[in-house]
Design brief:
The protein is an alpha+beta fold. It has helices at 12-24, 29-38, 40-47, 102-105, 169-173, 206-210, 233-238, 295-304, 363-368, 404-408; strands at residues 7-8, 51-52, 59-66, 70-77, 80-87, 93-96, 120-130, 133-146, 154-166, 178-181, 214-219, 227-231, 245-248, 256-264, 277-281, 288-290, 318-322, 325-329, 335-338, 341-344, 346-348, 352-353, 356-361, 369-374, 379-384, 425-426.
């Protein structure tokens, strides 16, 4: 997955491998060391914090749908436009680079620092660990933009990490060239960052560096339909509309929410969150990830599902209580079709947070909810969305602050879903972005 991973310095073994990479590319770590020493003052003040245009204008970026499990948008680094995953579950800017080997970059558009007049090198090396594997990267600084050349959201001298080698199988097949972290903290959280040099502050993250306090993500429903990321005054106004429901972000590191209960109509299974759970809304995870406590629920759905896809209309709507708000997901959110046969698409994950077992509300959640991420007020705002990703504002976006008892009395029924919501989604699990798999989870 592009989600929720820790980063640590590699030490001598990484330095030795990096030296080999540098020899291959005609440079040495000594040159980077001298350059870093020369620029130490600049890095500690300007480069580590970035210099932003601080735009607050309306901007909408299309996210290309790849096989129902990845969404790529354009990102500009230096003078190069790259297809990337915008990931609310991670923090850094990590780009495939020319420093990586031929297998790593074959058939891809990758970042080349030599093509950028604004690039500044660094001596720092880091290993970034994702659920799907790890990547060794070399730090640098460059001008970056969300979108392409004409984007109003640009920051100069932004820290980024150039991948020099990786063990992420999906990246060998996929067409995306980078992972852009959209975490809400101002600086790189402890436990995820390369240790800063003495007298310097940790790297500032992309959203605060660009002055972005609020942005939205919504994914259209339908085969190969795109997704959208937006920011600016229109998104800020939408978040205040009574058709949206607001839920407090309790995660200090991630876009994490409290989850109190999960129900599935007509299934006699216990609540998988009897003492509470944590839930992360993550644009970088392909499906819904569930903890071991949800196995009775997922097993019951698996038993009920006919592999020929003939009874999806009999499967339950999942009703999830997020800190008092109730959101709903129909079968299309958790059933996929592969080679003519239907399967459940839940991911297994065994991670614990201070709020209980962790769930990941990945791309299926964003197909049914226009979702606004609000750094300023530390909230996530939801509204139900149309298949074309328009927020539904004439009725509550979710079941407001209603209790599950109210839902049980028929406040929301399957009438809110169309027949196509009881059809499977075509997807390729070979290209999926998995959920994190660590036992301990920095929520």
């Amino acid at each position: 997955s592009a989600s929720s991973r820790r980063a640590t310095a590699r030490g001598l073994a990484v330095r030795e491998r990096m030296a080999a990479v540098d020899r291959r590319h005609g440079c040495s770590l000594l040159r980077f060391t001298l350059l870093a020493q020369t620029l130490a003052t600049v890095q500690s003040v300007s480069l580590r914090r970035g210099q932003s245009s601080q735009a607050n204008v309306d901007f909408k970026l299309e996210l290309k749908n790849v096989l129902g499990v990845q969404y790529h948008g354009m990102f500009r680094a230096g003078d190069q436009d790259l297809p990337v995953i915008y990931d609310t579950g991670s923090f850094e800017i990590v780009l495939l680079s020319k420093l990586c080997g031929d297998i790593c970059i074959k058939g891809k558009t990758v970042y080349d620092a030599n093509l950028s007049s604004s690039f500044v090198a660094s001596e720092d090396v880091m290993q970034v660990t994702y659920a799907s594997g790890s990547a060794t990267s070399k730090k640098g600084f460059d001008s970056v933009s969300i979108g392409g050349k004409d984007s109003p959201y640009t920051v100069k001298k932004m820290p980024l990490w150039q991948v020099v080698e990786h063990q992420i199988p999906v990246w060998n097949r996929a067409k995306f060239s980078g992972i852009i972290g959209l975490g809400h903290p101002k600086y790189m959280p402890e436990g995820f960052r390369h240790p800063p040099a003495n007298g310097t502050v940790p790297d500032q993250l992309l959203l605060p560096a660009m002055g972005i306090d609020m942005f939205s993500i919504c994914l259209e429903r339908g085969l190969l339909k795109p997704g959208w990321m937006a920011m600016g005054p229109k998104v800020q106004a939408l978040a205040k509309h009574p058709g949206f429901t607001s839920v407090p972000v309790v995660g200090e590191v991630h876009w994490g929410l409290r989850m109190a209960e999960v129900q599935a109509e007509d299934l006699n299974v216990s609540n998988p969150c009897p003492t509470g759970c944590g839930a992360i809304v993550d644009s970088g995870t392909s499906f819904i990830a569930v903890p071991p406590s949800a196995k009775p629920l997922t097993d019951a759905i698996e038993i009920k599902l006919k592999m020929d896809c003939s009874n999806l209309h009999e499967l339950p709507v999942l009703r999830i209580q997020l800190d008092g708000a109730v959101v709903e997901l129909p079968p299309m959110a958790y059933i996929i079709k592969i080679s003519g046969y239907c399967h459940t698409a839940f991911m297994e994950m065994d991670s614990m947070s201070q709020f209980g077992p962790v769930w990941i509300l990945g791309m299926p959640f964003l197909r049914y909810h226009y979702t606004v991420f609000d750094r300023k007020n530390m909230q996530i705002h939801f509204a139900r969305s149309t298949p074309a990703c328009e927020p539904i504002l004439d009725t509550p976006g979710v079941a407001g602050n209603s209790s599950f008892a109210a839902v049980g009395q028929g406040l929301y029924s399957r009438r809110v879903f169309a027949p196509e919501d009881y059809e499977p989604m075509e997807a390729d699990r070979n290209e999926e972005l998995p959920a994190p798999d660590s036992k301990t989870f920095a929520f």
